[in-house]
Amino acid sequence: MFKLRRRQEEVRMDKIPHHIAIIMDGNGRWAKKRMKPRVLGHKAGMDALQDVTISASKLGVRVLTVYAFSTENWSRPKEEVKFIMHLPVEFFDKYVPELHKNNVRIQVIGEHNRLPKETLDALERAKELTKHNSGLVLNFALNYGGRAEITNAVKLIAQEVLDARLNPGDITEDIISDYLMTNNLPYLYRDPDLIIRTSGEIRLSNFLPWQSAYSELYFTKTLWPDFGSEDLHQAIIEYNRRQRRFGGI
Ligand code: FPP
């Protein structure tokens, strides 16, 4: 007797999404399942992020944008917010050296006026250290909210019009995109090709509302700290199966 083994599907290296964005959800539930404090879930989430970043970089992904803290997350218990704000400091010491070796460049989007100084300093150091790296861009969305981002872009564009530097009739989608926070990314890769959300929630929660207009969406029940390179491969395999038509036929 012999078994017919299904050939395992593999990632198509010629169809790797250039920009992947991830809503890293489920850290709290992961910790609760293990009767641990929620913050340990965030710590485990940071390990998962490191693994996924290195895997994505090996696959040739150009940009990985991760939702690390939303403008709504301030309503969490003070101690938890404090802990999350300290993560970039730990991240810099423990994780950035390996990322730097892998040619990863760190970038940040979000409104940073409310972030503690030590958080900002750690991010600045990571950006500075990796600024000449030409590999994957790891783009942290920290204190990020999509509607606030669009509102801010509208204000800036309105000011350009008031100052007679721009005609309302000349405003294009490309111009709007230039005023969004993702203008820190390489021009061709500003919009995510694939958005992943973990932990079974099926919504985008104010994450990249403009940029996600044509993104493929992938939802998985896996909690973020359990998400690893194998799960990333599965998400890309699913992406490979989709036909992206951008409104065409
Ligand atoms: C959502 O899970 C996760 C967060 C709000 C924080 C995510 C942060 C990290 C994974 C670490 C990022 C690293 C740096 C360097 C900033 P949740 O707490 O909402 O989980 P729950 O829905 O199960 O409660």
UniProtKB/TrEMBL annotation:
Domain of life: Bacteria
Pfam family of the protein (one): Prenyltransf
Species assigned in the record: Streptococcus ferus
Official protein name in the record: Isoprenyl transferase
Residue positions binding substrate: 26-30, 38, 42, 70-72, 74, 76, 197, 203-205
Entry-linked PROSITE patterns: UPP_SYNTHASE
Record family assignment: Belongs to the UPP synthase family.
Any Gene Ontology CC annotation: cytosol
Positions with a binding annotation for Mg(2+): 25, 216
Molecular function terms from GO: ditrans,polycis-undecaprenyl-diphosphate synthase [(2E,6E)-farnesyl-diphosphate specific] activity; magnesium ion binding; manganese ion binding
Active site, per annotation: 25, 73 (proton acceptor)
UniProtKB keywords: Magnesium, Metal-binding, Transferase
InterPro entries per record: UPP_synth-like (IPR001441), UPP_synth-like_CS (IPR018520), UPP_synth-like_sf (IPR036424)
Cofactor: Mg(2+)
Gene Ontology annotations of biological process type: polyprenol biosynthetic process
Leading EC class: transferase
EC numbers: 2.5.1.-
Assembly and binders: Homodimer.
Cofactor binding mode and count: Binds 2 magnesium ions per subunit.
Protein task: Catalyzes the condensation of isopentenyl diphosphate (IPP) with allylic pyrophosphates generating different type of terpenoids.
